[in-house]
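[step 3/7] fold_predict: job queued, chain A
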Amino acid sequence: MLDLKMTLVEFLERSGYTRVPLTRSGIGHFHTDGTLDGRPLSVLVDTGAGGSVFSLDIAREMGLALTKLEMQGGGAGAARLDVYRIGEASFRLGGLTPKVGALLAMDLTHVNQAAALRGSGPIDAVLGADVLEAHSAVIDYGSSSLYLKL
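[step 4/7] structure written:
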């Protein structure tokens, strides 16, 4: 039986969701903290991005194995950017290991230039619809929280 006095948080927690805290940039975008093989990342939550991508510069800096793919990507004003598959690596959001279609890397210079023009800090990764859909994501604007069902 549905308890009509149950809060959204109570409902989500009882339904198997885990909270990922979010912060808002000066331009209203949601960000969270993540790691790629233990390296801290600033992650932009982008409901309009089809897939999650990581900074190509960071992947190279970390010495991760990269394979250039036939497909190209884009977004935030850039088009036709090379996309790379990251070899063995682990992506985490807080204590969670989200399901990512594939670990992909792309040059995020265009994303960071657009963010800088609006007074936002650097972005190391974009969390896209692949993760949001795989975990039946719920974004709670009231508490600045992302809930993922595991």
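[step 5/7] annotate
Residues 91 and 98 are 7 Å apart (CA to CA).
The longest helix spans residues 109-117.
exit 0
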